[in-house]
Amino acid sequence: MCMHRWTFCNLSKLNPEMQTWKNYYLRRAKLEQHMTSGRASADYTCKTLRGHTGSVVGLVYLSDSNHQFDSKSIVCSASSDGTIRAWSIQEGIQLWSSQVQDAPLTKIIADQQTGLVISTDSQGRIKAWKAQTGDELASFPTASSACTLLTYYRKDQSFLTAGTSGGALHTLTIPALSQVSHVRAFDTYKIDILLLSPDKHWVIAALRESLDLHPKVYFTESLSCPCEDDPPVSASLPVNGCTAASFFPSEAARVMIVHSDGLSNAKNISIFDIKSKKSKYKTEIMVEQVGSVELLLDGWNSDILLEAHGSGTILIAQGKELKLYSIAGTQIASFQDHKEHIAAMCVDSFRVVTASYDLSLRVFTWKKEQNKDLSLESRYHLLGGSHMFSRGFTHVACDYASIVASVAAKDGKDVLKAYSFNA
Length: 423
Known about the structure:
- Helix content is 6%, strand content 51%.
- By secondary structure, it is mainly beta.
- A hairpin with a 3-residue loop joins strand 11 and strand 12 (168-174).
């Protein structure tokens, strides 16, 4: 019953006081009830995490993947002030801060396999940090003004692929950050999008600057274990440009791309399944289009947030609106709960959270319609403070028991808002 409802739980690793599936089920169900109703104080506590003296540029969870109730949620945040800071969400305290770096930080991601966080700065220097202590372990210079980062694990080794502002892909080992391959994906254009397929076999690299260049798909093995005389196995997806992209988490390698229709400012979603065809001497990439959706978007605004759920549910946030589509192109639902633009969105198997410049988070939960399509039910707002001091929410992330979002402060010293739900 637990495994059917919560596919992430691992009953073999429960702590002693939770050593039966019934105890786990009852406590988890109670937690979900609190996350569904969202009553201040009764269902959750909110803490403000202060310490950064610049803009927060990203935040990542380092939560226990086994979803234990006695484990603490830990979040790392990176800032333009040149520091990474780790926070205990339930306690509302800072655990450690890195030394101030020579350049403002621009990105942060986590590698759960090794327990590390990876950062990059405005000079293109990539660094690996021990998540529990903040110790710096390694660094790698890319000489790029911006990098997009992606981690994955194959054959007992963690890897990092970084896309640069010059269109290159650097693949490094983790934690040593030793380079194993360097590929020129695009000439002079900045790689904005890097995605990893759920089966870990494919990397999508794309850019937003050009409507003429097609997104590219790479075989991860040819990036992490390249052959000396052969170029990496790659193929282009048959679309013009890429505004946003996402893999469907329940499919091995089904990706959707938001792109121009090639004739006007209109945007479409094209959906592809990616497979390999292996012969004795080579591997070929097979791309099959399995769906398309015509988007009716508001005006010329190209700021589109795209996420996928399951094997066929599409979420698009643009402006103040959140829309749901099926893979067949049917619009399932539309929500306009925010008064300002949606800046960020996170999606999991239980809920969707949108963060807006109106200084609120909107929480939705999944529900099944009579026609068996998945839809959302709008539940409640979580407020982030006063517009007298803040500009709005900029980033949001969730784990199984909490929500954390960054608030852009008018004095330039961004804070985190941590909402911890009672179990």
